[in-house]
Write a structure and sequence with these properties.
The protein is of the alpha+beta class and about 900 residues long. The strands form ten sheets. Strands 1, 6, 7, 8, 9, 10, 11, 13, 17 and 18 form a ten-stranded antiparallel β-sheet that branches. Strands 32-31-29-26-22-21-20-34-33 form a nine-stranded parallel β-sheet. Helix 6 (about 350-360) links the parallel strand 21 and strand 22 (about 360-365). The chain is globular and about 85 Å long. The structure holds ligand MIG. Ligand MIG binds near residues 301, 508 and 524.
Length: about 900
């Protein structure tokens, strides 16, 4: 019936289009057409199916299953604070399988208590109440006290696609006026997604701009934030999905897909950090990356010959620009063929890799997923790919070809285990030569010669994966997971080749859960001030989407930056998780030395600072690898209740971001503007990172104050609960602040992470509330840390008007410290008269710095832990 209607209406719509184009005058015939058109519009709308009414309820041990003939809805509790909601328009639930969710989490269950009343059926856990309306099937989720957190706004709608019969769906939720939305991963635009709509369809978005959507990755996960409280929703569907946050309807948000399973997870906070940790529990975290990948990385498209790479490496060392990695882009290959090396450009490749290692540089090589269709040419990736049936095929059984960098190319069928295993093996020779990392580019997948710039949608893929029934499907389902499975093949392949070495994989495309296979970057940005500004919300959003190891092309990919722009970008980038300078072919040189000594000196000082801060950064990363709380954080994540009415502070605070819990970076929100801008502090105690002086008044916010209003001048001053200061933009100084209560570990300057720092560890104490810090170290490259070979020390301090006491915990783990002594630097100290005691014994090596109001004391590293107390001396000392 629907089918007939569709064909009939399809013809009418086509005719109507022709009439419109040919300028058909309004006549009786046209009127008849318009009437038919209306009828068809109504008719097509009628094809949408909604499920109403609870017909039958099955109480499950861990949830509920409802028949709404012919559909079915199932809600189960994986944990007390985490639900899986799944629904089908037929009697069969979607397949319980996932590319994103970890197997152990997918099968986790808690038991629940069933509830019902005249209007609804449902259940509750220790933390959540779930009610399903008997008439509409609408779901309401409340906290234990009955406060509604999330509510369906209208029935779920199913809709058949005209062309191929895929059954799409859409879910609508009530959107309160004061709710804000964060996440969706790889997106431009404001951090808060409210008011926008977004598409998940992995796209090679060369020269993307502020409004470009979709981009390279699909991360269908977001956080809802209202009045300081949060929840998360993760739509686990790999098809083309869409999200709308009040663009379509003022008071609804919605998400849906063109096909595939209607399965989503509800993650209760209420702390936003708890949502992040739950998302990590579901989809995993990035395993601790190698230490060198936190160093400065230099890249370009391309350093074409070994001589050029050598020059770049030597120049970095000669100019004393600390650095750890150099990237080889596609021109190192023969005819752009992945897994080859052009030996006219790199005649002694393995010797060259060794030379670079001696110079303390890691090489990261691009290796795209497309395999040159090169029969009878001795190109092993093609030959073995054909022999193993590893390439995707057209409907007629022939291999699908697309034109990419190598010319005519074939594409691996990455959703098959055997194909990933084969592909992972292709890295063998390069990896055994000593290459440190691989760069998975073009894996949206990108194809040059088709109108949709990717593999044709009806191309067939094989699904062979635990949890899924083995089957043949098409790119409609697989397109968005080619990138993640490519990265997975790379990561697993590297691990299989070197069992005890941390793989480093940088991928451009991915899907939710892809963080498990390494790092990502924001793709082909441009060398403009607006792209520098955009990078902050983009990286924050990737972090919220699980990708804590993320960076952008510093200096911009397309085009050439002005020298000031490159400098400003290298400053902000020093505080990004990944720090990689990269640019495209035929642009100007973009290395840190370009533009003369003055610019280079500023840039070097920021790269130096990054290396001094590595102990802190790496400790934050190690925690992120366990918890999923990202390195680079929007302010609401740490300070969900900063504002008087508890709206997210990021809405007012421009491009401010946090690195870990303690560092606040406040670049100008509009970096090409010259007038002063306001820095808003999320709590009462903050110190200037560069000078150590206190910049706020330390008075805790008054809870009774009205909603804060950001101001642009006045330094410092309180507004409502918050304090701001006014900053005059200055190319030499990126404003960075430290939370009062932070204890930061820093190290002496090194030129690469391969060097052992020489001198004491520095421990900076910034007195304030909740005073603590932590230090994590290990060998930086192996997996020995998983077997106890690490170093961990925790710090706390207690502060009173006349005394500060630092407690250093005993060391856990067996990795030795490189330092023998700790230089304690106590900020906010205003007198040369003091008594310092280490474990009760007076020590007298202190130095008071009146300019920075800091006290410096040297104490030995002591694995058993120690207590340092510093008291102001009473005036009797005269
Ligand atoms: O079509 O390998 O985003 O970083 O330099 C361009 C060449 C292919 C796109 C990547 C970019 C890389 C470039 N690649």
């Amino acid at each position: 019936m629907f089918h007939v209607l569709r064909i009939f209406c399809g013809n009418y719509l086509r005719k109507a289009r022709v009439m419109y184009r040919t300028g058909y005058a309004i006549s009786r015939k046209a009127c008849a057409f318009i009437v038919m058109l209306l009828a068809c519009t109504v008719g097509i709308a009628a094809q949408a199916v909604t499920l109403h009414a609870v017909n039958q309820t099955h109480v499950l041990n861990s949830g509920i299953e409802i028949q709404s003939n012919p559909g079915v809805l199932q809600i189960v509790a994986l944990r007390d604070d985490l639900l899986r909601i799944t629904m089908s328009a037929t009697s069969k639930l979607p397949e319980d399988a996932s590319w994103a969710v970890l197997p152990a989490s997918r099968i986790a269950r808690v038991s629940v208590t069933p509830d019902q009343d005249a209007l609804s059926v449902g259940f509750h856990t220790a933390l959540l109440q779930v009610r399903i309306n008997r008439q509409t099937l609408g779901i309401t989720i409340s906290d234990a006290s009955g406060h509604v957190i999330s509510q369906d706004a209208r029935p779920v709608e199913y809709r058949a696609d005209d062309k191929n019969g895929d059954l799409g769906f859409r879910v609508w939720k009530v959107m309160p006026d004061d709710e804000h939305y964060f996440g969706l991963g790889d997106k431009t635009g404001p951090l808060d997604r409210r008011g926008g709509s977004y598409v998940m369809w992995n796209t090679d978005a060369y020269r993307f701009q502020e409004g470009t959507d979709p981009l390279y990755k699909s991360i269908p996960f977001f956080i809802g934030f209202r009045e300081g409280k949060s929840y998360g929703i993760f739509l686990d569907n790999t098809w083309r999905t869409t999200f709308d946050f009040g663009k379509e309807y003022r008071d609804n948000y919605s998400f849906g897909s063109e096909g595939g399973p209607l399965t989503y997870y509800f993650l209760y906070g209420p702390q936003p950090k708890a949502v992040e940790m739950s998302y990590a529990w579901l989809t995993g975290t990035t395993p601790l990356p190698p230490l060198w990948s936190f160093g400065f990385q230099q890249s370009r498209y391309s350093y074409e010959t070994e001589q050029r790479v050598r020059e770049v490496a030597d120049h970095l060392r000669a100019d004393r620009i600390p650095s750890d990695a150099i990237y080889l882009d596609i021109d190192y290959q023969q005819k752009n063929r992945p897994f080859t090396v052009d030996n006219t450009k790199f005649p002694y490749f393995s010797a060259f890799v060794q030379e670079m290692e001696k110079k303390q540089f890691h090489l990261v090589l691009v290796a795209d997923l497309h395999i040159a269709d090169a029969p009878n040419q001795g190109y092993a990736p093609f030959n073995t790919g054909i022999a193993g049936q590893h390439f995707v095929k057209n409907q007629d059984g022939t291999i699908y070809h697309g034109i990419v960098w190598p010319g005519l190319s074939d594409f691996p069928d990455f959703t098959q285990q055997k194909t990933r295993k084969w592909f992972g093996g292709l890295y063998q020779s390069l990896y055994m030569d000593g290459v440190s990392g691989f760069w998975d580019d073009m894996n949206e997948p990108s194809v040059f010669d088709t109108p949709i710039k990717t593999i044709a949608l009806d191309v067939q893929d094989h699904i062979d994966e635990p949890g899924f029934t083995q089957r043949v499907t098409t790119q409609r389902e697989v397109h968005n997971i080619v990138g993640i499975e490519n990265a997975r093949a790379t990561f697993d392949g590297m691990l299989a080749l070197k069992l005890n070495q941390r793989p480093f994989v940088l991928t451009r495309a991915s899907y939710a859960g892809g963080q498990r296979y390494g790092a990502t970057w924001t793709g082909d940005n441009s060398s403009s001030w607006s792209h520098l500004r955009m990078s902050t919300p983009m990286l924050e959003s990737l972090g919220l989407g699980g990708f804590y190891m993320a960076g952008d092309d510093i200096g911009g990919f397309a085009g050439s930056p002005s020298m000031d722009l490159l400098t400003a970008w290298l400053e902000v980038g020093a505080f990004n998780p990944m720090y990689r300078d990269h640019t495209e072919k035929y642009t100007n040189d973009q290395e840190p030395w370009v533009g003369g000594h003055i610019q280079e000196a500023i840039r070097r000082s920021y790269i130096n600072e990054r290396y001094r801060l590595l102990p802190y950064l790496y400790s934050v990363a190690e925690k992120a690898s366990r918890t999923g709380v990202p390195i680079m954080r929007p302010l609401f994540l740490e300070f969900p209740e900063a504002t008087a009415d508890k709206h997210p502070l990021d809405l007012d605070a421009g491009n401010e971001f946090l690195v870990g819990p303690d560092l606040l970076i406040a670049p100008t929100p509009y970096p090409d503007e010259l007038q002063p801008y306001a820095v808003t502090f999320p709590s009462s105690d903050w110190y200037d990172y560069w000078t150590g002086t206190r910049v706020t008044d330390g008075v805790p916010p008054k809870s009774t104050s009205l909603r804060s209003v950001p101001v642009s001048t006045g330094a410092p001053m309180g507004i409502g609960a918050l304090q701001t200061i006014s900053i005059h933009p200055n190319l030499q100084v990126l404003p960075v602040y430290v939370r009062g209560g932070a204890i930061l570990p820093l190290q002496p300057l090194i030129q690469s992470t391969a060097q052992k720092p020489n001198g004491p560890l520095e421990l900076r104490i910034y007195p304030g509330p909740d005073c603590k810090g932590t230090l994590y170290q290990d060998d930086g490259t192996t997996l020995n840390y998983q077997h106890g070979v690490y170093f961990r020390e925790d710090f706390t301090c207690s502060v009173s008007a006349s005394r500060v006491q630092l407690n250093i915990s005993s060391v856990s783990g067996s990795y030795p410290a490189w330092w023998k002594q700790i230089e304690v630097v106590l900020y906010g100290w205003n007198t040369a008269g003091y008594v310092a005691k280490l474990n009760g014994q007076i020590i007298s090596n202190g130095r008071y710095d009146a300019v920075h109001r800091s006290l410096h004391l040297l104490i030995p590293q002591n694995a058993a832990g120690e207590v340092l107390s510093i008291a102001k001396q009473l005036s009797s000392g005269r």
